[in-house]
Structure prediction request, 253 residues.
Amino acid sequence: MKQGILFFLLLLGFNSLPLVGQNYVKIGQLYWGIQNLNTTHFRNGQEIARAKNPTEWENYFRNGEPAFCSLNYQEKNDSVYGKIYNWFAVVDPRGLAPEGFKIPTSNEWSYLRAYLNYDTVCRCALYKNSADKLRSANQWKSKTVGQNKFQMNIEPCGYVRNDGNFEGRYMQTTFWTTSPKNQANVIGDSYDTYYVIFNQDKSDFYLDNNFEINGHFVRCIQGEQEYFFSKANVSIEEESNDPPPEEKEEEEE
Prediction:
């Protein structure tokens, strides 16, 4: 199966797809990238600025420029952990996600959380252990071992603070959404954005909002969330590493 998936991707020209591992997992109605986005270019081929130190990170933001950095500003970490992007890169009209993909909204992350927490007895989301099901089994300082049930391999890489320094390594990791809390558009003051937090002492991941000057990782998705749950009882055992249907159709043509 894995060899067949790789063949489809190579045949379609996805050998350069900037998703580490070049695979997806289907959870509910959406296909999620199994590792962090790792691209240096926008969808149209234009380069994104790389911040090589905390000062450059802060300056790019102050100038309103899209930028990324490597974990601890070490490029050798990119192939393992992907890259950290600023808000301007996430919402740039040139497109940060590769063709056919997008960065999740806060609602789409919320749907994922509800899906993983769905209880077939009460037919509701109990919000208790979505993070445990997605976290990696190593690196976390938490006493709770991640189940990594869907091979999404959420690792505790921390985030970049507004001063360009890293925080939270081995204790948490954060991901961008494309959902601003408001439209004030005042840099570093009141233009808050929603992001997702996986924390070492929380068995459930959650959304919070903060100034967009911080830097977070990115997971890409494909598909549309048409409804909360299917009419039949959902099961979190439903998963697939097959390419999204659109890719299969292209290959068959």
Remarks:
- Confidence is low (pLDDT under 50) at residues 1-21, 184-190, 229-253.
